[in-house]
Amino acid sequence: MPTLTRRAMICSAACGFAAPAALGQSSAFAAAAARARQMDQLHSLTIVQDGRTVIEDVRRGPSAATPVNVKSVSKSVVSALTGAAIDRGHLPGLGATLGDLAPGLIPPGADPRVTAITVENLLTLQAGLERTSGRNYGAWVNSGNWVAYALSREMVAEPGAVMLYSTGTTHVMGAVLTEVTGRSLLSLARDWLGDPLDIDVPSWARDPQGYYLGGNEMALSPRALARFGEMYRLGGRWQGRQVLPAAWVRDSFTARTRSRWSGLGYGLGWFLGEADGTAYALARGYGGQVVAVVPDRALTVVITSDPTRPARSEGYFGDLQALLERDIIPSAPRA
């Protein structure tokens, strides 16, 4: 499975986040932008090349500075917060188990193997529990205790054996972060990501016990998403500050499993693919919300889309993946 290489990049003044001239019409990405405009689900396309915004094209929806629902891109945010928690000593590492970290979250009657589920299992969606996404999502969010419901599902695989895409799994990770730090996921996101990146992190949905939903429904603007992606591209740094450990970024971009739907690898909250001989990492949300990080091309791409319409691998998301792999990545020179 591919691993994205780390490159030491230096961000240019203000990291190029001033409004781009003429929306990059003279850039190598103009043709890709024109093709993106033909997609009726797409709301905005942002391309940051070598620290400079070369495309910022908002076709529908609010401005590039307005937070929008990023759906399951939230899973990559929860992963980032987990890396920050490990760096700060709140978690001992990826091998720490639910039984050690937050035994009070485990409901009576849960499969005994639940206690051995690790942080790594949660972030890689390999908890082994029956999924709470897809057709099971409604029953889960209508339950009286989202954490207990997720952890009381049938164990359909051994922990660490297979990827089972499930928002409930990432929600459990978010609840663990709250338990070990004594702080809400919102507070952590604002402190550990919002402040150093200078981005707005609005409040979002909470479960009946008050835990902020981990893995869905967060809102970030396209410009905030671009800074989040650029921070990862730069090995966890932003404007001279180490926001996340470089080793965490490398681990996040190392595939540990694979999606049976898209065929993409999956690391710590990031899908992983390859195009034009270059590895890339992808945060992906329902409807076609995308943050793509391509370190070897000094490239970050953000796409926001209609969050109410599906984006399946054989449909709209497949179109977005083709846009990225065939049009955008090959247009960027190797860094």
From TrEMBL:
Assigned keywords, A-Z: Hydrolase, Signal
Chain ranges of the Beta-lactamase-related domain: 44-310
SUPFAM superfamilies assigned to the protein according to its UniProt record, in alphabetical order: beta-lactamase/transpeptidase-like
An MF annotation (GO) of this entry: hydrolase activity
Signal peptide location: 1-30
Name recorded for this polypeptide: 6-aminohexanoate hydrolase
Native organism taxonomy: Bacteria, Pseudomonadati, Pseudomonadota, Alphaproteobacteria, Rhodobacterales
